[in-house]
Specification:
alpha+beta; about 280 residues; six-stranded mixed beta sheet; CNF1/YfiH-like putative cysteine hydrolases
Length: about 280
């Protein structure tokens, strides 16, 4: 049965969230948040979920709002404190709810679980959020792929950790790559292309384009690289949905680190297993 790869923004009460129809009919809940629907003000207005430039109380209230919109227990959620790595943590009860009081004490850029009712969250504001579902073992992953995490191959590591820990078959996995900076706006010096080439060889050049009017600068398609890396890890291409939305092009809808000069909030990618029907 072919999947619907459409992304759409839907109002969950007063909270607009972006979802991907590739997960339709599956026993999970998921969303990619937008800026709207929360209590934060100023550059962090309004559904800011990142502690870096906001009060703990605002972020706490925003997490409660998101949890109510998606229908989960905010005290069951496990969050990340991201360092642009390929570190993936098995999320359990001991980690749950820690994000409500401030940044979590551990560092990772990915989370996996097979526990129903255990929401996983990864933050972004131009970086690429990746959600994975392994239906054969009923397990999920939430990954944060900045350019360093992409070069560290976090997407493929996420697939492999679902294999190693739960015995998941990559050929049955389903993935949604959410809103993030697209190659139209992600222009870099040669350090980023060089890091990708050192990690993946010359094949990655298919996703890197020299900027026509600026010698020494390049457009890098992080979404496409992460999709390719999922495929090299065994996930079928037609089981991967990629959001067309560029956070840098849509700074009124999503936070963009590049568009804001770093004065911003952060959105989140959330995924949670429901009980099997």
């Amino acid at each position: 049965m072919p999947f619907d790869h459409t992304f759409r923004t839907v109002d969950f009460g007063a909270v607009p969230l972006t979802i991907c129809r590739i997960f339709d009919g599956m026993p999970i809940r998921h969303a990619f948040t937008t800026r709207a629907g929360g209590v934060s003000t100023g550059a962090q207005a309004s559904l800011n979920l990142d502690h870096k430039q906001d009060t703990v109380e605002n972020v706490y209230q925003n997490h409660l709002i998101l949890a109510d919109a998606l229908g989960y227990d905010p005290h069951a959620m496990v969050s990340t404190r991201q360092i642009h790595s390929a570190i993936i943590r098995i999320a359990g009860a001991k980690d749950a709810g820690q994000h409500l009081d401030g940044p979590v004490p551990y560092e990772c850029d990915g989370l996996i679980t097979d526990q129903p009712g255990r929401p996983l969250i990864a933050y972004s504001a131009d970086c690429i959020p990746v959600l994975l579902y392994a239906p054969d073992v009923h397990a999920v992953a939430a990954l944060h792929a900045g350019w360093r995490g992409t070069a560290a191959d976090i997407a493929a590591h996420g697939v492999r950790r679902l294999q190693e820990v739960y015995g998941a078959d990559p050929r049955q996995m389903i993935a949604a790559i959410g809103p993030g900076i697209a190659n139209c706006c992600f222009t870099t010096h040669d350090d980023v292309p060089r890091a990708m080439q050192e990690a993946f060889g010359t094949e990655v050049n298919a996703f890197i384009t020299p900027e026509a009017d600026s010698p020494g600068r390049f457009h890098v398609d992080l979404k496409a690289i992460n999709s390719w890396r999922l495929q090299t890890a065994g996930v079928p291409a037609d089981s991967i949905a990629v959001s067309p939305e560029c956070t840098c092009c849509l700074p009124d809808k999503y936070w963009s680190h590049r568009a804001s000069g770093g004065n911003r909030g952060g959105q989140a990618a959330v995924i949670m297993l429901a009980e099997r029907p």
